[in-house]
Design goal:
By secondary structure, the protein is mainly beta. It contains 4 helices and 19 strands. The chain has a single domain, classed as Porin (Beta Barrel), CATH 2.40.160.
Length: 410
C-alpha cells in the first residue's frame, strides 16, 4: 500500500513540475500586511506558500521538520536522539471557478505512520455560505487547524493539543463555513457533521481518559463507530488591530451502545470546549498565542477513579522578536526569544473515599531561541523543563533537556 501511495505522489510531482515555487513571490506576499491582518486560524489550511504562485490547476507544496534532542527524566536519559518528526505534502487544485480541492498527507517518523489529515472539496457560493466535504480537520481550538511546524517556535507540539485534545484530528464529513467583513472586524463560523470518537477514549493503553487514543481507529474514515455523528462548531471574531478570539465545541456519542438493534449500554457522551486567542502587542511586536480547553466525558461507573470524567488544560506562547534585519546574507531575517507555558490536569476530581485531590497533572516551561531566515523557515533551540505528577500526588517525575531542530515549507 505504501509503495502505491509513493508512486501516486511521484506521478503528481512530475505532472505538476511546472508549478514549482518561485521564492521571490514569497517576499512580496510577506510585505502585504493588510493580507496578513485578514487571515484567521480557519484560513490556515489554504494560507500556505505553494498556493500563491502558479496558475496551474494543480500545485504542490509541503513542509518537513527534524530535530536533535537530549532529554532526561529523574536523571535517566536515552542519550542523544536524532528525529525526523514529519514530512507533509500538500496537493491542491482549482477544479473550476468557486470549486477547489486540497489534501494534506503526513508521513511521521519516516514512514512509521502515513495519514491523510485533510482531503476536502470546497464549494463557494458567497462569503458567508460555503460547503466543505471530505476528510475535514475538526476545528476544536486553534492548534488543530493551524499546526504546521514552520509557524511555531517550538519543536514539541503543545501537550494539551496533542495528548488531551487529539491534535490533527480529522474525520469524514460535511459542513458549512463562512466569513463576514465589517470595517476592522471579521466574523467567521464553521459547523460540521463527521464520524467521531469510539470506546478507545476509555479503553486504551494510557489507563486514563484519553481522546487522542481514538486516532488509532483507522476505520473512522469509512464508517461511524456507533452510527452517531460528531458535532463540531466554531465561532471566531478578529479585529485587525487587536487580534483573534475563537470559541469552539466538539461533542457527540462515543460508545457502541447497540448491536444488531439490541441495546447493550446507554449512550455515553463526550463534550469538549475550547477558547483560543492570539494577538501582537504594539511597539515591541510581542506575539501572544493562547488556548485553553475542557473535556467532559460520561465515564461508566464500573471504571476506576483513574479515568476522569473531566479534564482541562492549555498553553500560552510568548514570542518576542529581537532583531529583524539582514543577517548572514538573509534579507528580513528575524531572531526571536520565546517561551511556552503549558499545563494539563488529566483528572479534575477528588477521591470518593477520602475527599483528597486526584493529582494526575503535568506542566512544562519551554524557553526558546529561534532564527527565521525567512517566514517559511525556522531554526529553533528549545530547553524543556517538565514535571508530571501521578494521581496519588507522589514526588513528580522531572524531565529536562535540550532540543535543536528546524522546520521549513518547501
Amino acid at each position: 500500500m505504501k509503495k502505491y501511495l509513493f508512486l501516486i505522489l511521484l506521478q503528481l510531482v512530475i505532472l505538476t513540475s511546472f508549478a514549482q515555487v518561485d521564492t521571490s513571490l514569497f517576499k512580496t506576499i510577506a510585505k502585504d500586511t493588510s493580507y496578513k491582518n485578514n487571515l484567521m486560524n480557519m484560513d490556515a489550511v489554504y494560507s500556505r506558500p505553494f498556493l500563491n504562485y502558479s496558475k496551474s490547476p494543480v500545485s504542490i507544496g509541503g513542509y518537513l521538520e527534524a530535530n536533535y534532542q537530549h532529554l532526561g527524566t529523574n536523571g535517566i536519559s536515552e542519550g542523544h536522539q536524532f528525529q525526523m518528526r514529519r514530512m507533509t505534502l500538500f496537493i491542491a487544485s482549482s477544479i473550476k471557478n468557486r470549486i477547489k480541492f486540497l489534501s494534506e498527507i503526513e508521513f511521521e517518523d519516516g514512514t512509521k505512520e502515513i495519514n491523510i489529515e485533510f482531503a476536502a472539496v470546497d464549494f463557494t457560493f458567497n462569503p458567508m455560505i460555503n460547503i466543505r466535504g471530505g476528510i475535514l480537520m475538526n476545528p476544536i481550538g486553534a492548534f488543530n487547524q493551524n499546526h504546521d511546524g514552520p509557524k511555531w517556535e517550538f519543536i514539541d507540539r503543545p501537550i494539551s493539543a496533542t495528548q488531551m485534545l487529539p491534535a490533527t484530528w480529522s474525520n469524514v464529513g460535511f459542513g458549512l463555513y463562512g466569513k463576514k467583513y465589517s470595517g476592522n472586524w471579521i466574523y467567521a463560523y464553521e459547523v460540521y457533521l463527521t464520524n467521531g470518537f469510539d470506546d478507545r477514549i476509555i479503553a486504551n493503553n494510557a489507563n486514563r481518559t484519553n481522546l487522542a487514543a481514538t486516532k488509532a481507529n483507522k476505520n473512522r474514515f469509512e464508517e461511524s463507530p456507533n452510527g452517531e455523528p460528531l458535532y463540531t462548531g466554531k465561532f471566531a471574531i478578529r479585529n485587525r488591530k487587536i487580534g483573534e478570539l475563537g470559541l469552539s465545541y466538539m461533542g457527540g456519542i462515543y460508545n457502541k451502545f447497540q448491536i444488531d438493534g439490541f441495546n447493550i449500554d446507554k449512550k455515553r457522551s463526550v463534550h469538549t470546549f475550547a477558547i483560543d486567542f492570539n494577538t501582537t502587542l504594539p511597539v515591541l511586536n510581542t506575539k501572544l498565542i493562547a488556548e485553553w480547553a475542557m473535556v467532559v466525558v460520561d465515564v461508566p461507573p464500573t471504571y476506576s477513579q483513574q479515568f476522569g470524567d473531566k479534564q482541562y488544560g492549555g498553553f500560552l506562547d510568548v514570542v518576542q522578536p529581537v532583531f529583524k534585519k539582514q543577517m548572514q546574507g538573509f534579507h528580513n531575517a528575524v531572531l526571536n526569544l520565546a517561551c511556552r507555558f503549558e499545563f494539563v490536569d488529566w483528572n479534575v476530581a477528588t477521591f470518593r473515599e477520602t475527599g483528597g485531590n486526584i493529582a494526575d497533572h503535568i506542566w512544562a516551561v519551554v524557553p526558546a531561541v529561534s532564527f527565521r531566515p525567512s517566514q517559511q523557515t525556522v531554526i529553533r533551540i528549545n530547553y524543556r523543563y517538565q514535571q508530571q505528577t501521578d494521581l496519588l500526588g507522589n514526588i513528580p517525575l522531572r524531565t529536562g533537556g535540550f532540543q535543536i531542530g528546524f522546520s521549513t515549507y518547501f
